[in-house]
Amino acid sequence: MANFYLDNKDLKFHLSHPLMKKIIALKERDFIDKEKYDYAPLDIEDAADSYDKVLEIVGDICGNIVEPNAESVDAEGPEVIDDHVKYARGTQENYDALVKAGMIGISLPRKYAGLNFPIVPYIMAAEIVSRADGSFNNIWGLQDCAETI
Known about the structure:
The chain has helices at about 10-15, 20-30, 45-75, 90-100, 120-130, 135-140, 145-149; strands spanning about 80, 85. The mean pLDDT is about 95. It has seven helices and two strands, in the order H-H-H-E-E-H-H-H-H.
């Protein structure tokens, strides 16, 4: 089984960079969310471990679902039915797999059902998704627009 995170040692380097501790501390604001959310990290090590595990899940989904669907998605393409876009079967399968795994809203605050990831691990996940299917990242990658809005 392919995993687009575990097979790329360059990505793991970013999580172990010394500045990640500062980034995590700033993003987690003294880990105040641990009182409200059972999935919030308890400390810097817990947060880094969480990022690593989530990226492993993204890598697994991308290596075993998204990438194998890429060619058929391009061949089938989306269509417009009654003024609504219907994704190609593979695109919908990709999206559903990431939704089921809780990978939509990675960078959103927890109060909006997000994972509150800093931009570094979010961009790492985006690189993994892009490697599997660059066009699918146009759909998945727009999730951080909600944070901007």
